[in-house]
Write a structure and sequence with these properties.
Spore Coat Polysaccharide Biosynthesis Protein SpsA, Chain A, alpha/beta, eight-stranded mixed β-sheet
Length: 214
């Protein structure tokens, strides 16, 4: 997993960051975590303490980003990413390392694909916050798009939209999708730009589960 980096933007949510980093420490994640923190000083100190706590078990690179919004933070983290593959993870999400490994293997063998992902689910707690009793789970649909041309992939993707932000990306391709993010004042388009960019760049966007992975 040394060929994968997880980029995580966060703002004033040390409990969620703690849950995420302790998870990766507990499962022995051998990739890299880049954490972009836009928190206020008090919350940032708590997050830095958590990073120090897990530092002997998981590689975390902390970047202070108090002046940046979420998409700008993702861009800053991508510019510092050195591995060939990268995944965006919100601070309240998880991507299972085994799934990332299978996706990286798929992309290694299929250079005409821009992204890969497995199955995803939503979970909800009975109370607010990062910890507590589960209230339920549900499917989170990730798109599968296979077409021969970039224009056809883009049209199919927009017709039946599903975000690819949580897929495993080729780093340089994902980085290019964020480089002009400041030119978009509408927050909705700060997701659409990199997602559509990914659809155009590769042969297709295919759930890795369709090729036998889980």
């Amino acid at each position: 997993m040394s060929n994968v980096t997880v980029v995580v933007p966060t703002l004033n949510r040390p409990d969620f960051v703690g849950r995420l980093l302790r998870y990766y420490a507990a499962v022995g994640f051998t990739g890299h975590v880049q954490l972009g923190d836009s928190s206020t000083p008090e919350k940032a100190q708590r997050i830095q303490a958590i990073v120090k706590e897990v530092s002997d078990k998981v590689t975390v690179r902390y970047l202070s980003c108090p002046e940046l919004n979420d998409s700008q933070t993702i861009r800053a983290l991508l510019e510092r990413t050195e591995t060939p593959y990268v995944a965006f993870v919100a601070d309240d999400d998880f991507i299972i390392p085994y799934g990332m490994q299978r996706c990286a293997e798929f992309l290694d063998g299929h250079p005409d694909y821009s992204v890969a992902h497995g199955k995803a689910c939503l979970f909800e707690l009975k109370q607010s916050g990062a910890h507590g009793e589960m209230a339920g789970t549900g499917e989170y649909r990730l798109p599968g798009i296979v077409a021969d041309t970039g224009s056809e992939r883009l049209l199919r993707h927009i017709e039946r939209y599903g975000t690819t932000l949580f897929s495993l990306h080729r780093t340089e391709q994902f980085r290019r999708g964020y480089r002009n993010i400041d030119r978009l004042p509408d927050k909705a388009f700060t997701e659409l730009l990199p997602v559509c960019h990914s659809a155009i760049q590769g042969k297709g966007i295919l759930p890795i589960a369709a090729r036998g992975a889980t």
